[in-house]
C-alpha cells in the first residue's frame, strides 16, 4: 500500500496516498463542529447540536489535539480507507519553526493511537520546491494562517534566511469584512460569506500607482449573498490584495512581501542569494488571488537589489493550480523515497527511543 501523505493546513486539509503528479484525493476543511453529548455519552440529535466550531490547526500548528485525533480518524479510515489493524505509513508536512513538542506529540498520536507502521515529517517549503523539481530555492507560502518565506539549499531550510509571519488569508478575510462593513452598513455579513467573496473577487492592482488610482474611482458592483442580502463591492477587493504588498493596510509595520523575501535572503553569500532568488516558488491558496503573481513579478522587477527574484514555472506534467497543494505533491514525491529506503521512523525505533526519535530521523 502507498504511504498516506497529509498536509493539515489552518483552513484546508490535503490528504491522499503517495501518487505524485496528481492532486491529493482528499481536500477538506480542517475546521470541525463540536456536537453536544447527552448524559449517556450519546450524540444528541442534529437539531440539538451545538453550533460551536473548533480549529484543530491554528496558524499552521496543531492546537486542539482531541479535534485533530477525530479529524485524522475520519481522514485515514474513511477518506483513505485504511483498515483498523492494518494501518500503513504516513508522511506529514510541517510549517517553518514547528515547536519540538508539537512534532513529538504528533508522532506519539500516530504510533500510539493510530498504530501506524512508519512515520516521516518534512517542511512544507522543502516539499513545495520538490513539487517543481528543485532542491534549492525560495518559497513564499501564503496560506490561511501564516506566511512562510523560506530559503532552501540542497533540501535543507536555511533558518537564518527564512521568516515566518503570523498573518495569512484569515486576516485578509477579516480586512474585507471590515471594509465592506464600512461601505455597506446595512448588510449583515458573516465571516464565511466574506471569505467566499474574498476568494471570488479579491485581486491585486498592477502596481501601487494603479492601486492609488483605483482608490479614487467609485465604481462598484452588486452581488447577492446566499441569504438574499445585496452587497456592493468596489475598491475593497483591491485593498485586500494590496495589503500583501503594503502591510500597513493591516496595521502592520512590515515590508511588502517581495521586499521581505529579498531581505530574508540577504543574510547568505551572494552566490547562494542568486541560486535562491532565481528559483522562487509561490504557494498557498492566497497566492492564487487574481493578479497576485503579476504584481509579485512587477515588484520583483522594480526591486533595488542586484539580484532579483524570478519565479519557477511548474512542470507541465503537474496538476493544474499546483500552488494550492504543492506541499502535498512534494510530500508524495518524498514518500516514494523515504519509506522504500527505510529512512523513516519505524515502530521499532519509536518503541525503543520514544517520541524524541522524530528529531533524529526527520530533518
Ligand atoms: N482566489 C483566491 N483569492 C484569495 N484568497 C484565496 C483564493 N483561493 C483561496 N484563498 C485563500 O487561501 C487560504 C487557504 O490556502 P491554503 O490551503 O494554502 O491554506 P492552509 O494550508 O489551510 O493554511 P496554512 O498553510 O496557513 O496553515 C484561505 O485563506 C483562502 O481563503
Ligand atoms: Mg498550508
From TrEMBL:
InterPro entries: Actin (IPR004000), ATPase_NBD (IPR043129). CDD domains: ASKHA_NBD_AtARP7-like (cd10209). One of its GO terms (biological process) is chromatin organization. It is found in: Cytoplasm; Nucleus. It comes from the Eukaryota. The keyword Phosphoprotein does not apply. One of its GO terms (cellular component) is nucleus. Keywords: Chromatin regulator, Cytoplasm, Developmental protein, Nucleus. Essential protein required during embryogenesis and all plant development stages, probably through a chromatin-mediated regulation of gene expression. Belongs to the actin family. Plant ARP7 subfamily. This is Actin-related protein 7. It comes from Hibiscus trionum.
